[in-house]
Amino acid sequence: MNNLFANLPTTVFEVMSSLARETGAINLGQGFPDDPGPEDVRRAAADAVLNGYNQYPSMMGIPELRSAIATHYKHWQGVDLDPNTEVMVTSGATEALAGAILGIVEPGDEVVLFEPMYDAYLPLVRLAGGVPKFVTLQPPHFRLTEEALAQAFSPKTKAVLFNNPLNPTATTFSDEDLNLLADFCRRFDAIAISDEVWEHVVFDGRQHRPILALDGLRERSVKIGSAGKIFSLTGWKVGFVCAAPHIMKVLAKSHQFLTFTTAPNLQAAVAYGLAKDDAYFEDMRKNFARSRDRFTDGLRTLGFDVIPSQGTYFVNIDIAPLDETDDVAFCRRLVMEHGVAAIPVSAFYAQGAVKNVVRFCFAKKDATLDAGLERLADAVRKAR
């Protein structure tokens, strides 16, 4: 057996979701909405599977979708992309990440990772033979610093794997942070692999700034997006990869021997969805922001110390004021004794884990959030 995978523990998401199923708990841990997603986009997929082409589509993605991606990013983020040479479709953003890492990183190359980090990053870097170099971000702001980057970057740095907005912290990086990272990438001749799947799920008037738009990074970056996050259709697994032609040529070869292609009906539906009026995307943000505010206000009313959510489906609480020092034990007790599943943020660290932050998913119906808050109120009462 491959020791890398054989020795990996069961993910905390699976552990908490399994406990939620076994106990009948309300699952506010794993990040998916309990809404079916936009009906017109789903109908476009159904129509395409009944009346469209269902054999192998182009490995790079159907032309309609690649063109729609380029047009969409030009409109929303001001990035000019050639759909024929700089855009590729993958079977989800995780496959896009795997393809980018395997296509760029060689054994012995150093890769800068920011923790807390999405759980797929580190195994994929190690699978490629990369040597991880960690930058540990500290709550509540999770900012980049010159000192931390200087310790992580070296002449051996091949790539940096970046996530903005950041899961699990639900924070977005400032222009100052992004410009600092761009400076280090230029200085050390590193390629930036940017996981931007939450680019449309940002709140309070924030505008996403893509990695490709940073000074000097257009020719040394890979931008990754996700239709699943844009349309709240997480099971569809349709990802986007955008990069300069000399990078894309290599990533296409990596993709060829991973999934090769993606369901054509889903691609057709995503192309339709990306062309929707601005109102759809604006309303989507407003609706998620409303759910965030409903749940956040409820948490604060119960006495929890809430770390503000700037994007994603998530909001975090600091459990230190509750005299809690072990987020894993807290979450296990929460699901077993009070019927609410959450995620301990320490699970997103490889070293020096912060143990006092717990993540909830607010991308749920009002009734689900309210029921969760009722059970959390019971937990607070018993704690006191």
From TrEMBL:
SUPFAM superfamilies: PLP-dependent transferases. Residues 25-376 form the Aminotransferase class I/classII large domain. It holds the Pfam family Aminotran_1_2. Keywords: Aminotransferase, Pyridoxal phosphate, Transferase. CDD domains: AAT_like (cd00609). GO terms for molecular function: transaminase activity. Its cofactor is pyridoxal 5'-phosphate. This is 8-amino-7-oxononanoate synthase. It comes from Microvirga splendida.
